[in-house]
Structure formats: structure tokens, C-alpha cells
Automatic annotation (TrEMBL), chain B:
Name of this protein: Probable sugar-binding periplasmic protein
Function statement: Part of a binding-protein-dependent transport system for a sugar.
CC per GO annotation: periplasmic space
Signal peptide: 1-23
Localization annotation: Periplasm
SUPFAM superfamilies, sorted: Periplasmic binding protein-like II
Organism encoding this protein: Rhizobium leguminosarum
Claim: Signal is one of the keywords in the record: yes
InterPro entries registered for this protein in UniProt: Bact_solute-bd_prot1, SBP
Length: 317, 419
């Protein structure tokens, strides 16, 4: 019992001077355990961000070179951003990012919420339906990409099948069409992630106090009003979490584009991550690749940081 | 805590075991390559057998993907990590890039002993010798400006060998009328650019090709001839089936082999696929030079770049290099692969009709000064420029760039950016 007393966290200063080795160790233990992962994070996340930033100001081609040559890579990206006719790969990448990010996050949130509300109606077989919707999330984007690639391929999948059934006028070649290929990426992405968003919303719905709902019903609120005025506003924190998860999945999507479209006809399905990878590792233009990575980081920061800040400030109030 | 420690210990032991396994095999040749299609894999087996006779084990590091993009990425990671393979399949300027970075080995001694200087064409030595040292062993010479035609389909539509670009288009029209896919193409940027190499040579002639795609002369790049080349590309693209985007080159070849399509414009590695499918030239398939390019050869060459491996692994490397450039291997390998030997003193007895024509064409082009590096295949310019070029051609094929004026403007700009 006496040892327990010495490690009691509420010690007076006088008592703690005489603290045993074990006590001190226990105080320091969290720091010791955290230190390696802290150091690793500092080096491999923030260290490499700094390194990438440095490389973007050099003339690195196949391998890194360390002689600074000024912001040439950024000048090129700047020109590629505004020289949209005919579109450069970079312009295609960032416009695709806007389309994909907006639709992917938007549809996932809407569809996820909709499914969650339907599932929340105390329907029979919910425990069967829930994993069915959730399980696409268990697949890797590569698997999703390949499966949808076959499904959407006009020579193999949906179109061919419907032709076999006799609907020969059916035509769906988005995956081979430079203007629409990015929407097939949205379709596959939404298919994979909306079940997961549904699960998040469902958990949120189950967490809402039944008393509030009952009170509202007694006051004569219709179902629609109930969701519109009470339930959805209460789900605000879930929206935030889902948005953060979806946003980072959208921004890091690389594998889906590669597996589904191999970059699309003439590179028309590229996202900035594809651009970064292609230029850094395939085209031996490491400086341009690094610059694009830094621009991606800054863009994300510009959106996420103020958003997080406002959300967290509100919570603290 | 103790559980954590023990699992950490296990991890350390495992890592030590791995690196020990890595260092142990000095009698082993590690080869990174992207020869994963049927014909290619069969061709590589010849070398494996040669080496195993000398007691060297073979360790494949295959990275799939026709143009070798993925393999080059893997190689870069290996080199950056300091774990050099014994050798890697490489193309042209990539060899020089790595040589410049100082990671290539030195095979000059072996080269002297084997007399490579005399037997390997000068055009190839430009890429296999860096700073006076042999850093790579050329395996073969491919030429890019070929047409591969299914003979049965050709007979059915009553076609003859096209001598000019217009005749080619007329032939494609016939195939279209007969309900066959006229042109088999895979919509990957290197395939499109490989075809465009031939089109530019056909449209502008040998002088123009050299100036534009080897010397990167800006006047030639933005000339009307280049515009005309893009117009010709636009014309020929209309004969491709709508489902071509993203198709691998060997699948496109398979379309010709099966008779679903009439013709493929592809380098002579396509012949390896015909051979692997047990087809014979002149009875099952026809090989013609791309119309209007007879007498010139747009080449690329597979090289085995030799890395600066530790001394105890040198013996295996030398054995590999010697075996690679031996006459018997050059003949046996290239018969299967579809290409022609990288040395000029190999007899053509074992080669089929297409191979014999290839060897003769190469010899003539080498002597006549019409042997040009293929820009699409990394022999015309460094990778950054070659990739910028492939990008523009691909965007044109897929309609992001709509007119030949725009294409030329973009091409000049992209090459300028990548310089």
C-alpha cells in the first residue's frame, strides 16, 4: 500500500522531492514512450516537408540536386495554371481536383446521411444491411478501381452486357471519354466511401437524445421538420468529422485514378497527386514535382486550417 | 512493455536476416526488367539458361508495364537506397543519366577483351559508353517504323503493300468497309508517340526527323511539316476502335494476330508476340516498313545497364555482360524477341524473313547515315523531353489538343520547358 501512496499524483511539493526512482520513472514514462514516435514524426513528416520545399527551389531532375536555382518550378506551374487553352496537365489536374473533391465529398455526405436516416427507421434486417453498405470501405482503392474499370469498360462490362440482352442502343463510354472520365472516378469513389459515411451518421443519429425527439413530436413537428430543424443540426460534429475524413481521402486519391483509368485518355483523369508522382518519379522533373506538392499542401492548409480553427473555437466557447 | 520489447527484438532479427540474405549470393545475377509479356519472357529465358550453364543463379526483379515507366521508378528507388541490382534493362538517355549520377559500373576491360568497340554500331555506343567507359551492354536493336499486318485479313480485303501514307489510308478504308478494325492501337502515350515517330519520318523524310527529333531544332519543331505530321496523325487515328484508351501494346498485337484488326504500327517487339503465337511471316502475317520510311531506321535498343556492384558480385556481372554480347546469345535472343542483334557481325541464318529484312535494313541505315534514335523510346532526347513529347502527342490523340497548330505550339513549349 505504501508504494501506491508515493505514486499518488496529488502530492505536495515537499513530498515529491523525496520521490522514489520508480515514481519518477512513472512520471516520465509517457514522455519516454512518446519520444520515438515524436522524433519519427518530426523527421519523416515535417522534415521531409521542409526538404520537399527546398527541392522545389532547385534544378533537381532525376536525382535531388542541392544548388538553389530560384522559383523556376513555381513559375512554370503558375503559367500552367493560367494557360488553360489547350489545357496543361497541371491545369487538368487542379480542375479535376475541384470537380472530384466537390462531387465526392458532397455526394458521399448526402448519400451517407440519406442512407443513415432510412436505416434509422427501425427497419427489419438492419444488422444485415449495415455491413452490406459499410463493406466497400474494406476494399482497397486499387480493388475498387479495377472492378469498376471492368464494369465500366464498354467492351467488357455494363454496355456489352446490355447489348447482349438486346438493348443495343445503350451507350456508356465515360471511362474512355476525356471529358467524362473524372466522373467515373467520382462514381467509384462514392460507391466505396458513402457506406462508411452512413455508418458515421448512423452512430450520430443513435446518439441523439430520444427525449428531444419525443418533445418535438408532441409539439406537432412532422418527420421532415424533425430532421430539418433538430436532427441534422445536432449532427453537426459528425458532418465535421466526415468532411475531414472525406477531404483527406479526396486529396490523397492517387491509386483510384491509376487503377480505374491508368490516368485517363491523354492524362485527362489526373489529380494533383498523379501529377506530382508522374513529374517527380517518371518524368525526372523532381523540382516541378516538389513544387506541385508544396502547392497542394498550401492549398489544403488554406482550406482546412481556417475551417478547423472556427470549428474548434466554437467548441471552446 | 515486455511484449513490445520482444516484438521489437523479433523485428530487428528479421531485418538482420533479410540483409544477410541480400548480401550472401555473389553467384547471383539480379536483373530488373519489364519483359513480362509472352514473347519477351521467352526471349529472356535464353539468357537465363546461358548463365546457369556457367553456374550463376538468376534473380528476376520484373516490373510489369510496357514502356518501362514502372520499372524505372522501381530502379530509382533501389538506386536511391543503395541496393543496386547487378543490371537493369534501360533505354538510351536513362543510361547516361545514371552514369552521370556515378552509380554505373565499368566494363571497359571486358569490352576490350571481347572487341565490343568494333562490333557494336557507333549509334549504340553513344549510349553504352560514358566518359570513355563501357557502362551498359546493348542487347538488341529494335526498329520502330514497322507495320504488322494480318495476312488472312489482308487477303480477304484484297490489299497490297502500301507505299505511301495515302495508300495506307486507302488500305485502312478497305478494312473498315470489310467490317474489320483497321488499326490496332493501345491508347498509352508511349504507343501513340511510337506511331507518331513513324508518321513524322514518313511525312518529313529522314533529314527532317533527325533535325526535329534528335537535334530538337526549334525551327523544324514548329514547321509546317510538323503540322502536317500532326494532321496525318489525326487522319490515322480515325481508324482506331473507340475502345483503345489504356490498352496494352501486346493486347493490340493480339487483335492483329487473331484477325480482329488489320494492322498495328509498332516496333519490332511486336514480332515476338507473333512468334510466341506460332505464326510465321509471309504466311500468317506481313511486316512492312511504315509507308514512306523505307531505307531509314528509327531505332531503340534495350541495354543492360551495369551497376557499380561490390567487388564480390563483379564476377557475376562480367559473366552477364559477356553472355549478353556473345554472338550465340545475340542470335538466339533476337530470333525470339523480334529485334536484330546489337553487333553487326552476327550471321542472319537463324532469322525469319522479317528478321533478315531488319538486319539488312539496319546495316544499310548504319552505313547510309539514316539510323535515328526514336524520341518516343528515349533515344532521341533525355527522358524529361521524351515525356513532354509523349504528353503532347497523347493529348492530341485524345482530343485535349484540338488542332495541329495548337499541337505544334504545345510541343515547342513543352520541349522548351523540359530542357
Amino acid at each position: 500500500m505504501s508504494t501506491v501512496a508515493t505514486t499518488d499524483p496529488v502530492l505536495t511539493p515537499r513530498q515529491s522531492t523525496g520521490i522514489s526512482l520508480r515514481g519518477r520513472l512513472q512520471d516520465a514514462l509517457p514522455k519516454i514512450v512518446l519520444a520515438p514516435s515524436f522524433v519519427i514524426t518530426i523527421i519523416f513528416v515535417y522534415g521531409f516537408i521542409v526538404w520537399t520545399a527546398y527541392l522545389s527551389f532547385t534544378n533537381s531532375k532525376t536525382f535531388p540536386s542541392y544548388a538553389l536555382t530560384g522559383p523556376r518550378a513555381y513559375q512554370r506551374l503558375w503559367r500552367w495554371t493560367f494557360e488553360s487553352d489547350p489545357p496543361s496537365s497541371w491545369y487538368t489536374s487542379i480542375t479535376n481536383m475541384a470537380i472530384f473533391g466537390f462531387l465526392y465529398i458532397g455526394i458521399c455526405l448526402a448519400l451517407g446521411l440519406f442512407l443513415a436516416i432510412l436505416l434509422d427507421q427501425k427497419i427489419r434486417g438492419e444488422s444485415v444491411l449495415r455491413p452490406i453498405f459499410l463493406y466497400p470501405m474494406a476494399l482497397s482503392f486499387i480493388v475498387t478501381g479495377v472492378a469498376w474499370k471492368w464494369f465500366l469498360d464498354p467492351g467488357l462490362g455494363l454496355e456489352q452486357t446490355l447489348h447482349h440482352f438486346g438493348w443495343t442502343s445503350f451507350h456508356f463510354d465515360w471511362i474512355k471519354n476525356k471529358d467524362f472520365v473524372i466522373y467515373t472516378v467520382v462514381i467509384a469513389g462514392v460507391w466505396q466511401a458513402s457506406g462508411f459515411v452512413m455508418a458515421m451518421f448512423l452512430a450520430g443519429l443513435r446518439g441523439i437524445d430520444g427525449e428531444i425527439m419525443k418533445a418535438a413530436q408532441i409539439d406537432g413537428a412532422s418527420s421532415f421538420q424533425l430532421y430539418r430543424r433538430i436532427v441534422i443540426p445536432l449532427l453537426r460534429p459528425i458532418f465535421l468529422s466526415a468532411f475531414i475524413v472525406l477531404a483527406h481521402m479526396a486529396i490523397k486519391s492517387y491509386d483510384l485514378v491509376v487503377a480505374l483509368t491508368s490516368g485517363g485518355p491523354g492524362g485527362s483523369a489526373w489529380l494533383p497527386s498523379n501529377f506530382m508522382y508522374e513529374y517527380t518519379f517518371k518524368r525526372n522533373e523532381m523540382a516541378v514535382g516538389s513544387a506541385s506538392a508544396i502547392i497542394m499542401l498550401m492549398t489544403i492548409s488554406a482550406i482546412i486550417v481556417p475551417y478547423l480553427y472556427s470549428e474548434l473555437k466554437e467548441k471552446a466557447r | 512493455m515486455s511484449k513490445f520489447l520482444s516484438s521489437a527484438a523479433v523485428a530487428v532479427v528479421m531485418m538482420a536476416g533479410l540483409s544477410a540474405a541480400h548480401a550472401a549470393d555473389v553467384k547471383e545475377v539480379q536483373m530488373l526488367h519489364w519483359w513480362t509479356s509472352g514473347g519477351e519472357a521467352a526471349a529472356l529465358n535464353v539468357l537465363k539458361q546461358d548463365l546457369s550453364k556457367e553456374g550463376f543463379a538468376w534473380k528476376d526483379v520484373p516490373v510489369a508495364g510496357g514502356g518501362g515507366d514502372a520499372a524505372m521508378t522501381a530502379l530509382k528507388a533501389m538506386v536511391a537506397a543503395g541496393t543496386y541490382p547487378t543490371a537493369s534493362q534501360m533505354l538510351g538517355y536513362t543510361v547516361l543519366d545514371y552514369a552521370q549520377a556515378g552509380v554505373m559500373g565499368d566494363l571497359t576491360e571486358t569490352a576490350k577483351k571481347e572487341g565490343w568497340d568494333k562490333s557494336v554500331p557507333a549509334a549504340l555506343q553513344k549510349f553504352s559508353v560514358y566518359d570513355g567507359k563501357w557502362v551498359a551492354a546493348p542487347v538488341n536493336v529494335h526498329s520502330v517504323n514497322w507495320l504488322w499486318i494480318n495476312k488472312a485479313v489482308m487477303d480477304k480485303i484484297g490489299g497490297t503493300q502500301p507505299k505511301t501514307f495515302d495508300e495506307l489510308i486507302a488500305l485502312l478504308d478497305k478494312a473498315k468497309a470489310a467490317g474489320v478494325i483497321p488499326l490496332a492501337l493501345g491508347g498509352q502515350n508511349w504507343q501513340e508517340a511510337t506511331m507518331f515517330d513513324s508518321i513524322v519520318l514518313s511525312t518529313g523524310g529522314p533529314e527532317f526527323y533527325k533535325k526535329a527529333f534528335n537535334d530538337l531544332d526549334e525551327e523544324s519543331l514548329k514547321s509546317d511539316t510538323m503540322k502536317k505530321s500532326f494532321d496525318n496523325l489525326a487522319t490515322i487515328i480515325k481508324y482506331v476502335d473507340p475502345n483503345f484508351s489504356g490498352r496494352d501494346w501486346n493486347l493490340a498485337t493480339a487483335m492483329v494476330i487473331k484477325g480482329d484488326a488489320l494492322v498495328q504500327v509498332m516496333g519490332d517487339w511486336a514480332k515476338g508476340e507473333f512468334v510466341a503465337a506460332k505464326k510465321t511471316p509471309d504466311t500468317d502475317f506481313l511486316c512492312y516498313r511504315f509507308p514512306g520510311t523505307d531505307g531509314s531506321v528509327v531505332y531503340n535498343s534495350d541495354m543492360f545497364g551495369m551497376f557499380n556492384v561490390p567487388d564480390d558480385r563483379k564476377a557475376a556481372q562480367v559473366a552477364l555482360a559477356t553472355a549478353t554480347l556473345s554472338k550465340s546469345f545475340q542470335s538466339a535472343f533476337n530470333v525470339v524477341k523480334g529485334s536484330v542483334p546489337a553487333r553487326t557481325d552476327v550471321p542472319d541464318t537463324d532469322f525469319d524473313a522479317c528478321g533478315k529484312k531488319g538486319i539488312a535494313d539496319l546495316k544499310a541505315a548504319n552505313e547510309g547515315g539514316t539510323l535515328f534514335g526514336s524520341l518516343a523510346q528515349g533515344y532521341g532526347a533525355p527522358p524529361a523531353i521524351a515525356n513532354a513529347y509523349k504528353d503532347v502527342v497523347s493529348k492530341f490523340v485524345h482530343g485535349q489538343i484540338k488542332t495541329s497548330d495548337e499541337a505544334v505550339k504545345q510541343l515547342v513549349q513543352a520541349i522548351d520547358d523540359a530542357r
